Amino acid sequence: MSRMGALLHAAVDLLYPPQCLLCSAIVEDSRRRFCTACAARLAAERAEEACPSCAAQVSPFEVQQNRCRRCREVSSHVLRTARGGPYGPAHGQLLRAYKFHRREELEPVLGGWLVEAAAECPWIDRVEALVSVPTHWRRRLTRPLHAADRIAALAARRLDKPYLPVLRRTRGGPHQLGLSYTERADNVRGAFAVREGVRIHQARVLLIDDVRTTGATIEECAKVLLRAGAAEVYAAVVVSVGWARPGVQLTHV
């Protein structure tokens, strides 16, 4: 039976050769998701150093006491942040394909990178539950695939921790895309709440989102969780865009 299965697998690969998930080139080894060139591009992006607190790209020796020179200047409700990778050309292309073109085969790849990054953090054993950044119900009508929820559920299974979707978005508002640093913070202020009847009794939670740009959304959600009784809030994102100056328009996802 094993020989028959191998022959069947080989026949399928011959008729439908596996393609690279990034560039669609034919991949000789069906066990690989990316061609050699794209795998190297992705590995190079993920090798970039990131701040353990805000997940922004940092230069060597920039981090002191777990904070980079930019996030040392601001207070944060999030203790530490892990990222699967930077919002570089390769990772950005994959995330957009997943979110906007429903390339659901990318979910275990993107989620897997987030899980690997979180699992390597020294604080991961403190986390008791995972929570996702919610979206408004109106947006779900036009975009049924909500990346944060899906990635959080996947991460919870792989990390063997409960996933508790306790947050809700209380109002809509403009999409963050194209808004400036300050506009993004204003857009999400007061936009989240815990679900009715929920009380988080000194729990240490990991907040999941697909992308961190300015950190405004994650900060607002963390603030709500702490007010509801959470003891500590950590964060993990698929990709991180990094820092931007106030007034600068941001055109990422």
Reported for the largest beta sheet, the result is:
4 strands, parallel
Order of helices and strands: HHEHHEHHEHEEHE
Poorly predicted residue ranges: 245-251
Q: What CATH architecture of the largest domain do you see?
A: 3-Layer(aba) Sandwich
Rg calculated over all Cα atoms? 19 Å
Cα(first) to Cα(last) distance is: 47 Å
Summary, kept brief:
The protein has 253 residues and is of the alpha/beta class.
Which features characterize this protein?
253 residues; alpha/beta; Rossmann fold; 2 domains; four-stranded parallel sheet; 6 strands; globular; disordered C terminus
Give the arrangement of secondary structure elements.
Blueprint: H1 2-15, H2 36-46, E1 81-86, H3 89-101, H4 107-119, E2 129-132, H5 137-142, H6 147-159, E3 167-169, H7 181-188, E4 192-194, E5 204-212, H8 216-227, E6 232-240
Parallel strand pairs: 1-6, 2-5, 5-6
Antiparallel strand pairs: 3-4
Description:
The structure is a single chain. With 253 residues, the chain is α/β, with parallel strands linked by helices. The chain folds into two domains: 1-47, no CATH class; 48-240, Rossmann fold (3-Layer(aba) Sandwich), CATH 3.40.50. It has eight helices and six strands, in the order ααβααβααβαββαβ. The protein has helices spanning 2-15, 36-46, 89-101, 107-119, 137-142, 147-159, 181-188, 216-227; strands spanning 81-86, 129-132, 167-169, 192-194, 204-212, 232-240. The strands form two sheets. Strands 1-6-5-2 form a four-stranded parallel beta sheet, sandwiched between helices. It has a two-stranded antiparallel ribbon with strand order 3-4. The longest helix has 14 residues, at 2-15. The radius of gyration is 19 Å and the shape is globular. The termini are far apart.
